[in-house]
Write a structure and sequence with these properties.
- The chain is of the alpha+beta class.
- About 15% of the residues lie in helices and about 45% in strands.
- Strands 4-3-2-1-6-5 form a 6-stranded antiparallel β-sheet, with no helix packed on it.
- The longest helix has 10 residues, at about 25-30.
- The radius of gyration is 13 Å and the shape is globular.
- The two termini are about 10 Å apart.
- The relative contact order is 0.26.
């Protein structure tokens, strides 16, 4: 759905990181979480998108995409795949 909405635009798949948990617990938590997170890379800004039940929540952000881990507000996220 995102590829149709944003053709010819880099789309990055993200994962939520809870610093209080170890990596194995984060993996289990991610499987329980029904939301999917993406970052759409525009020229001057990015769009952070949370998808749940085919509904999009979009927020305009400015992120340094050269780093693998970053924050949006107080939420820590990491890239799973770049440019899907």
């Amino acid at each position: 759905m995102l590829k149709q909405r944003y053709p010819n635009t880099p789309i990055h798949q993200l994962t939520y990181i809870d610093k209080k948990r170890n990596p194995a617990e984060n993996t289990v938590d991610a499987m329980k979480n029904t939301k999917s997170y993406y970052l759409i890379d525009k020229q001057d800004y990015q769009l952070f998108i949370a998808v749940e039940n085919k509904q999009f929540m979009t927020t305009r952000v400015v992120i340094d995409t050269s780093k693998n881990v970053f924050y949006i507000g107080n939420i820590q996220l990491a890239f799973i795949r770049k440019n899907i």
